[in-house]
Structure formats: C-alpha cells, structure tokens
Protein: Skeletal organic matrix protein 5
Organism: Acropora cervicornis
Amino acid sequence: MQSEFPFLAVIVLLVALNDAFTSACADQKPSAEKPTMVCNLIQDSHVSAEIKNLETKLENLIALVNKTYSLQTAPPPVPASSCNDIFQKQRVTKSQVYTLMLGSRKIPVYCHMGDFGCGSGGWTPVMKTDGTKKTFHYSSRFWSDKNVYNLAGGKSGFDKQETKLPSYWETHFSKICLGMRSGLTTRFVVIDRSANSLHALIADGRYRALSLGRNKWKSLIGSQASLQRNCNKEGFNLLGGGSRFSKARIGIVANQENNCLSCDSRIGFGTGGYPDDSNTCGNAATIHTDNGDKHIKAMGYILVQ
C-alpha cells in the first residue's frame, strides 16, 4: 500500500487544483488575459475529461483501501467449544475433524455426529483407552491431572489410538457416551449425568454413584460378559474393597459375597486390581461368576454431549 501513496497525493492535488481553478474562472472578469488562458485550458473538454477520469480512479482506490482495511481488521470467528455446538447451531451433521476452542486452545478433534449408538446430536471425544496397556490404569495420573495424551489420536474415530483431550477438563455436559470394542463389535451405553467436566467427577478420587444396572454394564461386552452376583456397586472411582481388589474409574464392581469388601469382578474404564491388574478397560471376573471366568481386554471410548 505504501507505493500507492505518492499516486494518491498527485490525484488529490490535481483534484484540488481543478476545484480552485474552476472557482477562479467562475469569478474572473473577461479582461484578464493570462487567467483567461488558464481557465480556457481547465475548461477544455479533453483536460476536463482526464481530470474527471482521475477523480473516478481516486474514488475507486479509496473504496478499495477501505475494503481492504475492513477485511484485515475484522476479528476471525471463534470456533465452537463442543461438537454439539456445531451440530445444533451450525446445523452440521457430518462426522469429521473440526476445530474446537477448548479453554484457550484451538484443538482439531473428530466429532461424531448423529446416532451411532448413543443418540442424536454432536458428541465430543474425551478419551480412548486400550485395555491391553497401562496408560489409563486406575492408578494412572491421567485421571487426576490436566495433561493431554497423544492429541493426534483425537483426530480419528473409533480406532485403537489412545488419547486424552483437553475436553477431559474443559467440556461441560449433560450426557456421557461409553463405548467398548471387543472383537469386531463396538457397543455403547449412555449415562444421563451433568457436570462441568469429566475431570470434576473423577480427579478428586471420591466415589460418585450411578444406577445403570448390571445388565446395562454387561451390554458393553455382549454375550460373553460375566460378573459375580452381589455388591453391584457402580459409578465413578470404584474400589471393591482394599487396593488389591477390583476397581474402576468408571464402571461396576461385584462380589460373590453379600458385601463390597473383596470384589473379584468388574466391567469398566480405568480398571485394575484382582483378578487381572493388567486389564485396564474391559471385563475381568473370577470366583462364582454368572458366566464363567473372564479376562476380556477392550478398547474403550468416552465421549460427552
């Protein structure tokens, strides 16, 4: 734009001179010879047309400058803060990667749109956990801190990439979608629960109850699911007795005895303890179970809306 300023100055000067001479010629007496020559020059049709042409170019150039300035100073649109915002407000229904504003960060995430098993709307991914790995074991710091894990995994769908996104502590919700994949099938259940974030429900380690029922939890595994028949304690931050017994950050624990002091079975996310401490997501069960001993390690998916 700086190279155009001299040109602008010349045009402005010419326009000003034209206005001055026009005014002078209008007031001039016929006896003045030299001024008459100048006035005749200004009033010449060719010269007048050129000046008019310059005036038009100046107006167009000023309009262009104003338009460019306006475009440069217009604030960029603020990304949505959840996938459901995109679904509801922008009426976008295609499942794909979108950029969300999670806290002060713009994060690309794969938004699951529509009913894939949890109901309609936009679902924001929070975590993907692999039951064969220790990353999200019950004792992992990832359940209590505000650190991400493998952001790239948040840009893909229901695959085997583990991830923990800022939505774990930034996204408020009224529903939680839990999914487990064992074999070739992914099964889902929905929890109607409102919270400022999943971090707010889990990070402090306090037990918070749920009441889905044991059959609902077993539906995440399918016909192979197995639990002991008693206790059936479900919710967040479950400890089925001492630290060596079954536990889960989200899920259900059960016992063969009519108490919750020595649970030997569970279905859930962020699990650990007896009978298989290496199983961190899925179903582990032994001792007087309703469907035999099980050691099913699943891929877990946690989304919110």
About this structure: DSSP finds seven helices and 13 strands in the chain. The radius of gyration is 35 Å. The mean pLDDT is 86.
